[in-house]
Design goal:
Elements lengths: L2 H17 L20 E9 L5 E8 L5 E5 L4 E8 L5 E3 L7 H6 L7 E2 L5 E3 L2 E4 L2 E4 L11 E3 L12 E7 L2 E10 L10 E9 L4 E10 L3 E2 L3 E2 L2 E2 L13 E4 L1 E5 L12 E2 L11 E2 H4 L6 H6 L3 E6 L7 E7 L5 E7 L3 E5 L22 E6 L14 E2 L5 E11 L1
This protein binds beta-D-glucopyranose.
Amino acid sequence: MNSVVRDLALACVTVATLAGCTTNKGRCCKMSECGKSKASVTVSPFGKTKTGLEVKQFHLVGAGGVAMDVIDYGARVVRLWTPDRDGKLADITLGFNQVSGYEDIDLYFGSTIGRFGNRIRDGKFTLDGVTYTIPCNNDPGGIPCTLHGGTSGFNDRVWDSRTLTNGDDVGVEFTMTSPDGDQGYPGKLDVKVTYWLTAKNVWRLEYEAKTDKATPVNLTNHVYFNFHGEGNGTILDHELTLFADYMTPVNAGLIPTGDLAPVKGTPFDFTSPWKIGDRVNTKDNEQIKFGGGYDHNWVLRNQSGKLAAAAALYEKTSGRYMEVWTEEPGIQFYCGNFLTDSVPSKSGGHLTFRGGLALETQHYPDSPNKSSFPSVILRPGQLYKTATEYRFSTR
Ligand code: BGC
């Protein structure tokens, strides 16, 4: 067997194994030729936190061939395998093989973010006449703010969990109570995040929350993608489309000014596909300078609260293509400007500057301090409910 044929055969066996494909018998195939596969979800130990809490891992195999590992620490995705156009699987998300990686290196890899995704100015907001102080854990441009919930966000909790199956779809439901006063936020918040992996290779995230006092809520997931496979170069050649005509410009502290700026004629115009690397280093653009590249919120065209396309990402050599659909009004596109080669990769090497990108569906950063932005305030008796889908395929 020549090496190309052998590699393809091996890839196919891997696809078949992960996908639970029974008819393939190692014969070289594409996903579409694998025949009927069976979805499954299995549980195993992932390790322990530094405080001794057991962390569980869930291995989800979708009937369509995509597979993923998620853990209850941070209700996060650790690995996500998708086929390239030849059916060869790669883990396309950044993460760590041990709990300590997540505890020691605070990059939010794959995690559920809460109570409030992205930044809140000065770690303060006023709600119904009361000013609340939350911990500042970030200071871009030397300006302190709260990032992703505070010093101990939802990414830092061990969630309760149970496995789910619904026909060909498999999932995990994560639940957690954030107590009144958690990180300084008012109200006891009961949170549920459900991950589904569908037979159509869709990773669907459903979020729900209820509170007993008015509080800001903005939940998202901080998965980083690299369609070459994690630890395998940069994302600068990935082609991105964002279904957004405006973005929310920021100051030097990466806090929105409150304006909505048209993207037309700027490096922020992704209304048609652009390679990320083409304009990421534009010299004379203040917004690019503040972000150290792309690290901004786009105002999605769809403001209806119904599921609609928000973004598309394509990488030519692998053929991997993904659409992001969401009910949220915004999306943070962050191109890994704070990643360095000091961060180990799961496959034994190391990451690199811009070695992954995040597309975080959300309400706009600093909304609790911006009355003109869509409201993020959840009140007693209301149900916070939102969904986002990452849809994987090849082209
Ligand atoms: C933010 C970045 C931040 C990163 C942390 C992103 O959502 O926009 O500024 O550095 O999260 O990993």
